[in-house]
Structures are given as structure tokens and as C-alpha cells.
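Re-run requested by the PI after the first attempt was lost when the workstation crashed. Everything re-entered from the original request form. Ligand of interest: NDP.
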Amino acid sequence: MTKAATEVRRLESYLGGAWRKGAGDGVPLLDAATGVPVAGIDSSGLDFAGALAYGRDRGGAALRRLSFHDRAAMLKALGQALTAQKEEFYALSAATGATRADGWIDIEGGIGTLMSYAAKGRRELPNTRVLVDGDVEPLAKDGSFAGQHILTPLQGAAIHINAFNFPCWGMLEKLAPTLLAGVPAIVKPASQTAYLTELMVRRIIESGILPEGALQLVCGSIGDLLDHVDGQDIVTFTGSAATGQKLKAHPAIVHNATRFTMEADSLNAAILGLDAGPGTEEFDLFVKEVAREMTVKAGQKCTAIRRVIAPRRHVDALVSTLRDRLARTPVGNPADEAARMGPLASLGQREEVRARIGELAAEAEIVAGDPANPTIVSGDAAAGAFLNPILLYCDRPDAARAVHAVEAFGPVATVMPYDEVDEAVSLARRGSGSLVASVFTDDPAFAVDVVTGLAPFHGRIMIGNRTSAKTATGHGSPLPVLVHGGPGRAGGGEELGGLRSVAHYMQRTAVQGAPALLSAVTGRWIQGAPVRDDAIHPFRKSLAELKVGDRLVTAKRTVTLEDVEHFAHFTGDIFYAHMDEEAAKANPFFDGRVAHGYLIVSFAAGLFVDPAPGPVLANYGVDNLRFMTPVYPGDTLQVELTCKEINPRSGADHGEVRWDCRVTNQKGATAAHYDVLTMVAKTWP
Ligand code: NDP
């Protein structure tokens, strides 16, 4: 142990409801730009089995008592609390080598992800604890037996093993869907930058927003933690493929079929279109994007562009433009405002990247940058982990191996030429599965060929062109609402993607039974479940009085030819099927003129509405509208409106009510079926 380690603060782990120090002296963690010790790290002697049990029993139980809306509100409050303290995070972030702009991605990008999940949870999830997944599957002709998929939170804990490059975002992007699902987390940041994660976790715990046990932190090795996982736990890993593969094969994970998600190396490609030569907007955008991806976070981004695939005839222009642009990126201490690119996270990491550049240089020539002699504007050249952007050129990429297989996790990319679109696609595929690819083209045919050729090998593909030049979110930015992860070499995992990732922390179960019992389980009325017809119109009931299954069977109304004529001329919908007997008859679906579908829906509203002011505040849409049997003049309509789902909104004086609306004709055949969506007051008057 060095003397320095004794002088700096030792990081603590938050386990079992308390901050705890490891038994050892602590391995020093150094400032990336100056080499000055920032903290010491050690987790030896801590009780990991106890922590896992604490998370499951204490945190899991508390989270599961909350509804999705409660958990979403918690994420929002957390996002607000962290935003209020963001400057403290920025200050420490510089020690990781991050410039202010790099820190923004990590800190505010992470908080933004929390906020995005908070909003989605409130808007797109019901205020329940069980999620209904998909439609009811009828399993008996007489309707007495059906199936329904549901999702419930796993009863274990999520162990998040994260990479060094995003100490905040890496934690928060996994934490948001985990907590929303109702599952506690144990976060293990990569040691190199764990001091920033530790600070953020301290602020989270101090805020008191999360129930105790919902979040624990390990600073240092996870010891024997994985020995204790079972089939209700989930491990998510971000880092090198070698570590990921080792952990995935851990006996307890294999034995218990513990869910394991991996996000590993990725040789992401960016393709310049055949149409996008020098002088086009796409060429300029491409240059800007490649340079940005190489320099943001000093290229230490799992999504960064590593392979630059360009038409052979434009390669010279591309290389010289990129070289100029990269030369204009000042490298230095992130604390210095003049520096646009900081150092790598550590000297060790720089050695690693230099070794990888050596492997690449066996197949490609270095055309920009000198890996051995950094040129910097500030920082300590000897103690800081500086490296200027390194651009390589590989003339025969089809015959090369390393350029498609070796990930230099730093400001490093290799340009490779192609002649035809198929060649560009096959070169990009040589990455064996990546997180993201981008294509810069204004030619739809080229975009179609590239996207269809690459989609099975990628989790995300961005098409860049002049139209989206100002609004595109960029090749390298994972977004909370879009999938982040990739097949094959990228690890085979999937994160984010909006509510898709919440399901990763839940168990999907097919439940079969009689409608009344299925309805009791899900809290949602289904066809065949009990209904309640009483004297009070359901639109006169507030949320306090309304019950799932409350039903209105309306009066009847006969549709006349005059109604159809009137509706047609009133709305302008004079489509022949409503107006021309001969032409309608010739249509394979009709026996003559039919009523408009929207006339049926309008008459249905007229039949089920209760006109006086009351607890129903607004109709905000219909879902799944289907017209099932044609309605002819002379047919008589009737509506059955049944309260299907009640969703009181937290923190508001109203909630959403979903009604099953079935419109039948005089023979009992269903003319139209849909869900009516309304806002209803919690109390009335
Ligand atoms: P590692 O795979 O070494 O580490 C990733 C995480 O796993 C860290 O939290 C690390 O903790 C932990 N870990 C390592 N060994 C074990 C173990 N035996 N048991 C439990 N946890 C373990 O990757 P690095 O962070 O060192 O990065 C190395 C390379 O990974 C990079 O050069 C890059 O190629 C790739 N990488 C890929 C990323 C991606 O998102 N795809 C992101 C970052 C890196 P600790 O730090 O304490 O060892």
C-alpha cells in the first residue's frame, strides 16, 4: 500500500442499512489527470450474504408494497433531489477524466433517465402492483375458461455490476427500471471511478426517498456475493467480455438459472453512404459525428464509433478532414476550460488502450495521432492518463481480423473502405454483434439495404441525414425510451427501451382460470366476469363509488337510411359504401349500403352518456376500436358499457377509467367493440 492511500478518505459500502468500511487498508484510486490520490477502496470482510438477504427481505418487501405510480413518484423525487446537488457531482467527476460536457452525459444523462422512467411509469403503467401483459386469451368456446399473462416483481435482488466509464449514468440507467419494477438493487461500481458513485449513493440515502434496503452499494470487490444468488435474483453486468463470460458461468448463476444480462465490448460501425461524398451535408455530419464519438469521454463509451466504413473513392478526403478536425481538439486537464478532451480513466487503462492500438496497427496504419507522445494543453503529462485521438486506416478490411475484433476503449477508430453497399454491410457485420451502428445517407434505397442488413446484428441503428442534422440525438447516445444492448459480441443483453426493461426485473406468468377469478387476480374486468347493474348510472359514480364490473345496458336505437344520409352530408364522408346501393353490394363485405363506423360509435356515445355535469370529467380516447358486423339501415343498436379498469392517479383528484364498450345489433351480433377512456373525479360533488 502506498503512503498516499493512508491520507485519502476510504470509500465505504452501504450494506445492511449502514455505511461500512472494508477490513483492509484500501487500494488508492488516482485522479486521471494529475495522478493525485482521490480515495482508497476496499470491501474485504463485509457480509455480502447478509446484504443480499437484507435487500430481498427489507427493500424488496417495502418496494412491493408500493404501486407503480408510487414508485414512479419516488424516481421523480430522486431525480429532483439529485439535480439540486449536481454541482457536487460535477466537481468530483473531473477526477475521473471527464470534462464538463462528459460529466453532463454521466450526471444529467443519468438523472434524465430517472425522470424519463418516472414519467413513463406514471403515464403508461397502471396504479397497481400486478401488470397485465397482453390480451385475454379465450380458451373455451362457452367463455368459462381463459388465460391471461401477468408480470410480478422478482422477489430477489438485482446485482448491478457496472463499468468505470459512467459512474452515475451506469448506476441510474439500471436503477430506474429496477426500482419501478419493485425490485431492490445492490450496485457494484467499477473500482476506478467508484468514488463518484459512492457520493451519489450517499446523497440518495440521505434524501430518505427510497425505502430502506432498496439500494445498497459495494465499493470494491463483491467477495462471495454471487455464491448466494438464487433464481429470484438478477445480475446485470457491464464491462469487458472476458469478465462477463466468467461471471455468467458462475456456478450459482448456472445452477439457479439466475437471470444474467451482459453488456460487453462492441465494435460499433458508422457507414458513410455512397451518395454522401465531400460537399454533401451528410459528409460533413459524418465527419462531425466520428470526431465527436472519438473524443467525448475520450472515446471511453461502449457505444463509440470504432469502425468508420466509407466509400473507397471518398476515403482520402475523409481521412484528411478527420485528421484536421481531430488535431483541433485540445487535450488536457478537465478542470481546465480550454481542454475539450480529458485523459483516460487511469494510467492502467491507457496502457491497455496502447496495447490494443498496437494490435490494430499490425493490420492498419496510424494516420492521425501519436499513441506514445501525448500533446496536451494542461494536466500532468507524466502522471495523467492522456492520449490524443488516434485514427487508423485499414486498406483491406475484408482480409483483416483485428480491426473487427479488438476494442481499443479510448479515442481510437479505424477507417476502412468499401465499394458496394453489400460490402459495407458485410464489414459492419464482422463486428459479430454491436450495440449500435449508424449510416449517413440521403438515399432511401441505401438506408433500406443497410438497416435491413444490419438490424439482426445490432440493438440500435441511427440514420443520419440533412433533415435530422439539428435534432438527431447522435450515434453514441443510448436513450431511456430506446433499447440499449446488442447481440453476440455486445453481450446479448437488452437495457432501457422504455417499459420493456421494467419487465426484465419481473416474472411473466400465464394464469388460467374462469373469468371471475382471472379478473380478481388482475383487478381488470374481462368478458364473463361478474357485472353489477344497479339503478345508478355508472357515469354518476366517482372513483370512490365506482367498482370494476359496474355495467350499463342502454336503451336501443334503430339506424335509418336518413341517419346515414344525414351523417354523410354533415361530416362529408360520402364514401360509396354508405351512399351507393349498387356499388356497396358489389363490395365483398356488404349486402348494400352500410352505416358509417363512426356513426355507430357516435350513436353508442349518445346511448351510454349521462348528460348532466358529474364525476366523469373528460373522454380522452378509445383503444382497440373494431367494427365487426356491418350495420344496415333498419338495424337496432344497443350498448353494454362495463367498467373495465380503474386507475386512480397519485397526487391528483382524478383517475383514469377504462370502459369495455360493446355495441350489438338486434340479433346480438357485435357491431363494434372498443375501450372508452375517461377521466373521472375521485369524489363528487
Ligand atoms: P471489467 O470487466 O474488468 O470490469 C467491469 C466490472 O466488473 C467492474 O465493476 C469490475 O469491478 C467488475 N469485476 C471485474 N472482475 C470481477 C469479478 N471477478 N467478480 C465480480 N466483478 C468483477 O472491465 P473494466 O471496467 O476494467 O473495463 C475493461 C474493458 O471493458 C474496457 O477496456 C472495455 O473494453 C470494456 N468496457 C466495455 C463497456 C461497455 O459498456 N460495453 C464499458 C466499460 C468497459 P472492479 O473495477 O472492482 O474490478
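Saved to the shared folder this time. The two ends are 72 Å apart (CA to CA).
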